[in-house]
Amino acid sequence: MPWLLERVAHTGSRELFTLAVLAVALGIAVGAAALFGVSVALGAFFAGVVVSESDLSHEAAADALPLQDAFSVLFFVAVGMLFDPRILVEQPLQILAVLLIVMVGKSLAALGIVLFFRYPLHTALTISASLAQVGEFSFILAALGVTLGLLPVEGQGLIVAVAILSISLNPVAFSGARWLNRWVTARPDLLARIEREAIIKTGLPDGPHPLRNHVIMVGHGRVGSIVAAALAKQETPYVVVEHDVAKVESLRSRGISAFFGDASRGSVLDQANLADARMLIVTSPDPYKTRAIIDVARKVNPGIDTVVRTHSERERKYLERMNVGLAVMGEQELANAMAGHALRALDEPAKEGG
After folding, report:
1. Is the dihedral of CA 123, 128, 129, 134 positive or negative?
2. Fewer CB within 10 A of the terminal residue: the chain, N end or C end?
């Protein structure tokens, strides 16, 4: 399936790629249900596992996002219909125990695992807060457990109740993670000790994360390749986000970090560690795409410096009002270079004759 998705992506048709993703996902879900007797929901999970093996998984996930939004609404409606409010009165201690396991136990385990693999503290805290709730897959396992007689119906009721409570309290978990990150960051010695311990445990050499204080470059065409060469010459770390599969494969074969996908989608830029990037360079001349990329980037990293390309004076002024670091108009720079050379060349004979 990953090979098939790559072949479709090589056609350059975004619509065909979206259809291929949906066909693969639904085909595996229904096929698994028919062949192995599992539920369609579990088959859909298998489909996600299969698609995730492809380097194009992030773009596939972004294409499936509209469907995800629609099904999320139906999912929460279904959860609400399963909830029995009486359980809050009849089993408060059991609910509290399960809630602590989910929001505290699971979050602490996730925090330790992420730090163990030498990721920054703020990344570990974000993941920890994200997991401080009951996920959708838990309902599939709970329903399967009840069907097989492994889980009593009361247990499924506890899971539903804790799911609603943990999802409602999840914004509090994120607020706590942000506060804790600021508190630890304000104490450099403590921060260094936490991250150093993680490095020692993994046995990796001390030093910054490979994707920290780096440059994210969107596009690696004629302009992007020249900029990339200049960055490489100065030994400035950078990563490329490109919507051409062949270019991504070529860059990776040369040892350059590259990701496939549409940079105007946050899920794609996240793979390039946007939160820790120093600069964003957009080499695409499409003004609407450029604005969308800047909006997405600033939601995650408000202080990131931006360098963009434009083809009109009006668009350049608009980008400057967006506080873009530098908006380069190709024709303007070309005219300046030609005029400068002409004036210097014409001025030399005049000086000699004088």
Report:
1. positive
2. C
Specify the 3-state DSSP secondary structure of 164: helix
Return d(Cα 309, Cα 321) in angstroms, integer. 15
- Indicate yes or no: pTM above 0.70: no
- For tokens 């899971």, name the residue: 159
Cα–Cα–Cα angle for 78, 84, 86, nearest 5°? 165
What are the tokens at 126? 């974000």
The predicted structure's pLDDT at residue 204 = 32
Take residue 155 and report the two structure tokens written for it.
């247990």
Q: Record the tokens describing residue 294, joined without a space.
A: 């800047």
CB burial class (10 A; 0-12, 13-18, 19+) of residue 30? middle
What does the mean pLDDT of the chain come to? 79
Residue 72 CA to residue 162 CA, distance in Å, equals: 18
**DSSP E strand stretches across the chain:** 215-218, 238-242, 258-260, 279-282, 305-310, 326-329
Helices 153-185 and 121-130 cross at an angle (nearest 10°) of: 160
CB 275 within 8 A of CB 300: yes
d(CA 175, CA 181): 10
The pLDDT tens digits of the residues spanning 10-63 come to 887 778 887 888 888 888 888 888 888 777 777 777 777 777 777 666 666 666
Domains and CATH numbers, the chain: 2-200 (no CATH), 215-339 (3.40.50.720)
Pair 267, 241: CB distance under 8 Å: no
Name the pLDDT band for 349 (thresholds 50, 70, 90). low
**C-alpha pair distances (Å), 329 with each of 304, 310, 317:** 21, 5, 10
